[in-house]
Design brief:
The structure is a homodimer.
Chain A (H helix, E strand, L loop, with lengths): L2 E4 L6 E4 L42 E4 L4 E7 L13 E4 L2 E5 L3 E6 L13 H19 L6 E8 L11 E7 L4 H17 L3 H12 L3 E4 L3 E5 L9 E5 L11 H21 L5 E6 L14 E6 L6 H6 L2 E3 L3 H9 L5
Parallel strand pairs in A: 2-15
Antiparallel strand pairs in A: 1-2, 3-4, 4-7, 5-6, 7-9, 8-9, 8-13, 10-11, 11-12, 12-14, 13-14
Chain lengths: ~325, ~325
């Protein structure tokens, strides 16, 4: 019989289609041909030498010859860098000027490499760059919520193949984040514990949904994962905000992230995916009830009318089988 | 400058990308070739004569020769018809047995017709069938939330081209619906009015986002629409639950729905879309603070990492332009 599982972090229900579940192998991307990317593409705005195709950089990690990581404003920014944050309230209408920061983080000069194929040190530099831009954006008094995210592949919403991430710093906090903060606060008040720490503790005890453990982070498929192979990488140490990460933890997260994405890359033949850093804003650093993490969502299935019309999800795979499959994919 | 708009019904924020917005014409589906479907396909489980390819029907609207609308259990049901609803609570885990009802509503015997191409009377029969199945499912003591929805086209999650809808009656109420009920209740307590009635009233006054008005229903693009051309069709009369609809209203909704979908079909060249009936459960019939409606979501853009990672949306079109464009599409 199918089973409904409750996600305690988000209060969402998911139907785990236990009986008609697909096997992990069924999600391996069927490619027309194996695509190998060149290291340099003359028309790519993210390749070294083509810097004039993007707005001037806002941050760069230099290399002996050029750069290792480069950050520029998004040429097609969703929010305006210039202007004041102003809120208009008229009757039931609430409008805020679309000001904020929208940057692109070019993760490597090498056009041919995605995260799974980079060196650990390079991924670490990317994460340190995230931290730099996160702190920069958080200092902007117009900004309430900073989202760092990556779109990999067409189904994940990108057409640019040169590996990159983005940051959008928005002038409002979303109802979704507010609801999750309140949910976590309610759990803390009732049980005297961080709900995220509790979830991680239980996952480690049960161990069936663990994908990859490293010194400071644990990658796992959630008990109530909404979609096939979606995973969290959670810090073992309690931290509400991404800004609290130490250098040692960032280095460890780089190793963990690269291996976890490597398991997807090699196990499912480079599926399209999104990841994002889900964190409380910096002003929440130190609170006992919230806990930041990285959320990875492979884009293997489509949202349909049921999900859009109800807020409930159907997962056509078993979280335990997803994790077992990925544990079995060897990465260096 | 871009503008952030607040959706008062869902508390979601959307970035309306006013400056880099695409024109309505940019969303017209680029087809390889215009596809005309045959009226009958020998292998289609939903075509007349092939009834043995589906589970036995649970409801049928007969016609002189065979049937006008036919309902069967979904062959690949997400929930089990058999079994008791049982909830298991162990520590932080909440699990409910996956029992409920999952049916397919075959909207016409004619393989070649989508809703926009059907006769008004046929769409009315479909809506009366929705009502029958909604009431049937709502009487099942295991059921808490009934979702009626349609997936049209591959991007909307269907591979079967014979036009059909589905109903999933689930044994839990979702956090999303609960949050919207609470949000509406809060507005009622504070302002003494239904927030949906207020939104509809304001849309009618401003008129710039209205797509199609009929005697009992109004189709409009929301002020804070999350995606291009997404629309609500809302009853003018205050009703919390779909079960409260009268026969006259159902007939009018059929005409409105067919014309509104016709505007999408002819204006954007048959885009993929989902629609769903968003309603309070039957036990809420008569409450003053909630209001049911039909939500139509054309699948013209992809959710990417920002939306998945923040709960905020970017709409790359202007609701007012969407509505103006659709008003200009003539349908009979």
């Amino acid at each position: 019989m199918p089973e409904l599982r409750h996600n305690v972090l988000t209060r969402e229900w998911v139907i785990i289609a236990t009986e008609r579940a697909k096997r992990p192998e069924d999600f391996i991307k069927k490619r027309k041909e194996k695509k190998t990317l060149p290291a340099y593409v003359a028309t790519c705005p993210f390749c070294p030498g083509n810097e004039n195709l993007t707005p001037p950089e806002t941050y760069v990690v230099p290399d002996t010859s050029s750069w290792r990581v480069r950050v520029t404003p998004n040429k097609f920014a969703a929010l305006s860098y210039q202007g004041e944050r102003r809120r208009a309230i008229q009757g039931i209408r609430r409008t805020v000027t679309g000001v904020g920061i929208h940057e692109v983080i070019i993760e490597t000069p090498d056009h041919s490499k995605t995260t799974a194929l980079l060196a650990d040190a390079q991924v670490e530099t990317v994460l340190q760059t995230y931290l730099n831009r996160f702190l920069f954006a958080s200092r902007d008094p117009r900004v309430e919520q900073v989202t760092i995210f990556k779109n990999h592949g067409e189904a994940a919403g990108t057409s640019l193949e040169h590996t990159h991430s983005q940051m959008i710093a928005a002038p409002v906090i979303t109802a979704q984040l507010r609801d999750r903060l309140i949910n976590a606060l309610g759990h803390f008040d009732e049980f005297g514990e961080c709900i995220f720490c509790r979830v991680l503790d239980q996952e480690l005890k049960e161990s069936t949904r663990i994908v990859h453990e490293s010194e400071h982070f644990v990658a796992f498929v959630q008990y109530a994962a909404l979609s096939p192979f979606s995973m969290l990488i959670m810090p073992r140490r309690h931290m509400a905000c991404f800004s609290e990460i130490t250098d040692a933890e960032a280095a460890d997260l780089a190793r963990n992230l690269r291996r976890t994405l490597g398991k997807l890359y090699h196990g499912l033949d480079d599926p399209d995916f999104n990841y994002s850093v889900r964190t409380a804003p910096t002003e929440y650093a130190g609170v006992k009830y919230y806990h930041w993490y990285v959320s990875i969502i492979p884009r293997l299935t489509k949202l349909a009318g049921f999900e859009l019309g109800s807020g409930m999800f159907i997962n056509v795979s078993l979280p335990e089988e997803n994790a077992s499959f990925l544990r079995g994919v060897k990465v260096d």
